[in-house]
Amino acid sequence: MYIVILGAGRVGYMLASQLIDEGKDVALIELNSDRAKNSSNNLDCLVLNASGTNLKTLKKAGIQKADVFVSVTKSDEINMIACGLVSTEFSKPITIARVRNMDYADTKLIDSSILGIDYLINPDKEVSGAIIRALEHGARSDIMKFENGRIEMRDIPLGRDSVFINRPLKTVRKEVNLDFLISVVIRDNYSIIPDGETILRENDRVYILSTEEIFEEIYALENLGGQEIIKILLIGGGDVGMNIAEVILENQEVVPNILGRLKNILLNKKRKKLHIIDKNYNRTKILSERFPQALVTCQNIMDEGVLEDEELLKNDLIISATGNHELNIIAGSYAKSLGIKKAISLVMKDSYRHMAHNLNLDVAISRNTTIVNSILKIIRRGNIKNVYAISGGKLEVLEFSISVNSTLIGKQLADIKLPKNTLIILISRGEDTIIPYGSLVVEANDYIAIITERESIKKLEGLLVE
């Protein structure tokens, strides 16, 4: 597979790095000379310091043989024009454009032959969706969903009193007597794919595969709390914040008369109560008009005394979703130290997630990782349904379907020769979800989830995705 990427910013660089590690052929186009030089020095791929909307540059990058063209510059317009140019001149590449301004998506221009964008990725919607998933499950971990909808993967920190630590994992499973699978252990920024003999330690972060019901029992064992989230403090009213507010306040209309308000109080005692804080006065005016159900105030959350306000500290959850990702971490951590029970923070890159967890934040959503995962899901060959990068992209969780022509049909799992440090973690068959075992036979239309090191992706694609 050959991929041409336009834009060597954080997302473009991270995407190129992961694809190169997997053995993909990549060409990177970047107009900024410093970013182009950095990419050339650190990435094993063709790097062109030029404009990506120039046909000669695209041909020099090998667009005529490319399978995929991804445009992730900071300009929506350049991304759309570049995809339009590629789709007009070359029939082969799939085109993917990162577009922040969703007003473009509401026009017929996107669907016309003029632009020819096959896939449009909006980073704010991808990120706000991840935050909402975490909120809906109690703001206790990031949520990775699989195709059948019942099985999820969540990450959980292990404290000093954890029932999982200081003895082999096979012993823990017998004692706990719950149906779950620990698929990854993150320890001191290193990742471990465990087996039954693995001994977990305090401060490990484990990725667990199970159902929502069993997760509630695991949370209870780990004393991670199950209090209901009613009052929410949202810091940042930009596009991400607006998307979050829209979902939280969905179907919560303001009724103008007294009887209507009384009816709402009686029927919706547990409706979400949202307080939005933003330091931009003009933005708070827009937020007030758009969300009359919410309390909106114009304040700088880091001004002295703002977070110490007694009313703010009555919230069940703080969501920090400003454009300043260091501020998001600090605000969330400080709010928890003052008494707010739960905190979700938006961070820029995956390495910040480790820092955020060390500062007692419950959930840290990586903007770059979320966007790259969305793009990788499109790029992957075959019947890929879900892609999740974890541990800074060193590991990937892939979910794919088994086609009726797959050579794996009829094979036992024990007979499938998987690359080193690769683990089949889940099989979905119709409405059934199966925790894998060696003698299980693969059937057509099964959905299989695998966790592996990204260096093994190329071999897995050839072996499993047929």
Q: Report helical residue fraction.
A: 25-40%
Radius of gyration: 24 Å
- Residue-averaged pLDDT: 85
As for the number of domains, it is 4
Globally, the shape reads globular
Explain this structure.
With 466 residues, this protein is an alpha/beta fold. The protein folds into four domains: 2-121, Rossmann fold (3-Layer(aba) Sandwich); 127-221, Alpha-Beta Plaits; 231-370, Rossmann fold, CATH 3.40.50.720; 371-464, 2-Layer Sandwich (Alpha-Beta Plaits), CATH 3.30.70. 32% of the residues lie in helices and 24% in strands. The chain is built from 14 helices and 22 strands. It has helices spanning 10-21, 33-42, 55-60, 76-89, 123-136, 169-176, 212-221, 239-248, 258-267, 281-290, 325-338, 350-358, 367-379, 457-464, and strands at residues 2-6, 25-29, 46-48, 68-71, 94-98, 119-121, 143-145, 151-157, 181-187, 190-192, 205-211, 231-235, 273-278, 295-298, 317-320, 342-347, 363-366, 384-390, 395-401, 423-429, 432-434, 447-453. The strands form four sheets. The protein has a six-stranded parallel sheet, sandwiched between helices. Strands 14-13-12-15-16-17 form a six-stranded parallel sheet, with helices on both faces. The protein has a five-stranded antiparallel sheet with strand order 7-8-11-9-10. Helix 2 (33-42) links the parallel strand 2 and strand 3 (46-48). Helix 1 (10-21) packs across helix 13. It is globular. The two termini are 15 Å apart. The mean pLDDT is 85.
